[in-house]
Amino acid sequence: MGVFQKKEIKDAVPEAYLPFSAYVIQTRALPDARDCLKSGGRYLLWSQYSQKNTYNKPRVKGNDVVGQAMKYNPHGDAGIYNNLVRFAKPFSMRYPLEDPKGNIGTMTQGDDHTAARYLEIRASKLANEFFALVDKGGVQEWKLNYTQTLKYPAAFPTLFPNFVNGNTGIGVGCTSSIVQYNLNEAIDSIKKLVYNPDTPFDEIYIAPDFATGGIVTNSEEVKESLRIGKGKAVRLRAKIEYDGDENCLIVTELPYQVFTKRIMTELSQLEEEGKLSGVKNYFDGTDKSCGAYGVKICIYLNKGVSPEKICRLLYKSTSLQSFFSINCLMLENGIKPKLYGQKEMMLSYLSHMETCVRSSYKTELEKVNTKINILNGYLIAIAHIEEIVALLKESKTSSDACEKLMSSFGFNEAQAKAILELKLQRLVNLEGIKINNDLKEATARKEEIETLLSNKEVFNEEIIKILDRIKKEYGDERRTKIMNLKSTDEDEPIEEKQ
Questions:
Q1: Pairing between strand 495-496 and 239-243?
Q2: Which of 118, 152, 256, 282 is catalytic?
Q3: How far apart are CA 232 and CA 446, in angstroms?
Q4: Crossing angle of helices 342-383 and 219-228, rounded to 10°
Q5: Quick check: is 43 catalytic?
Q6: DSSP string, 65-81
Q7: pTM for the structure as a whole
Q8: Is residue 216 within 8 Å of residue 264, measured between CB atoms?
Q9: Nearest to 375 by CA among 318, 408, 422, 319
Q10: Sheet with strand 321-327: strands edge to edge
Q11: 231: exposed, middle or buried (C-beta count within 10 Å: 0-12, 13-18, 19+)?
């Protein structure tokens, strides 16, 4: 039976609560700066990789994915499925990590996705950039799941700069809110840091670029916030066009995480309160023709009403203008919460990526050296083939044969074992010309890898090649427009509908 200890509550609470808060922050709440994933997202992608539920395989039911992820995730299945669907939504993720078939929600109402038993899904091609170095020795640290039976990466050896997808998290006494970026612009800035990590912030700064487009109206404040990782929030406005023929305002893009259902509810409330004077009618015309992240809210005006005046009213009174906070708090090496400025965030990704790439080449070098050693052993075997065959026939055990090969012909243990593993017919038929060609190729590859690992300039060029490939395969045009208005009431130009 346990022994009870008497403690003052002021002493007991910190002792119990602080370890709990640290556990929550490390295991659930904050993304890791290395791959910009929270643990839940990492469990999800790793379980899909383990089950070969990848872009080049058939999709499986959402229930299957959730079930596999629960082997790693000690929490409920509802959160796992919501995370899975969010990774698939093009209006939630700037660059989706899942490839779905089925209803994952729309811009009318963000969470109206289908049940897990109906959705078919697999990791997207982009997600494969998280897995590319796993089997090549790129993982720097492994962890065990909650049953201590399965291992998973502490951080993916990702080639993709996943900070461009942004992230949010709430922990015990802390929050994280990371904006989204354009991949092309991020890659261009990272390349500058490859050549010179001391490149000034102003030369590598990239403005936010959200999945749903919209307009940032306080760009100077946002820049200063991103410089240190915390500060003034992003002020986002919807994109509104004016159709003079119909005397109609058409909302075509919404602020990030705002959906048309909320806007329609707010318009209805304004109308009930008598604050929507000048507006004749409005309706939500959003459909498939609007694309993955576009909308179409039509607001018809009374004759003679100023479109600019109505826009100011809408921005002030509805979510057509909203805010996205900036608080780039992430885990440093998966352990300690740290506030990251934009430059530090890029450098963290770059350092991790370079470490993983270097580790993968070291692993390949070990394999190449092993191959060269074996091929040299084969060449020795060809030169003494008759003696070796006779020796093998006389040997009673494989260990006896191994010792005789090493003592009689100078083989090392790896070479001797490789010869013993060959069938006798294959040993007799070894082709010296082919082995010499293989040896030349392996030696050339060895020299190439050694140069890459020892020469910083050559290694940098390899990193640039990877970044250029990522940009070419997954990059796209900027969606969010950047402006700098001095106040929230200042007019923004209304685009005339063509």
A1: parallel
A2: 118
A3: 52
A4: 50
A5: no
A6: HHHHHTTT--S-HHHHH
A7: 0.89
A8: no
A9: 422
A10: 167-170, 175-178, 321-327, 230-237, 215-216, 481-482
A11: middle
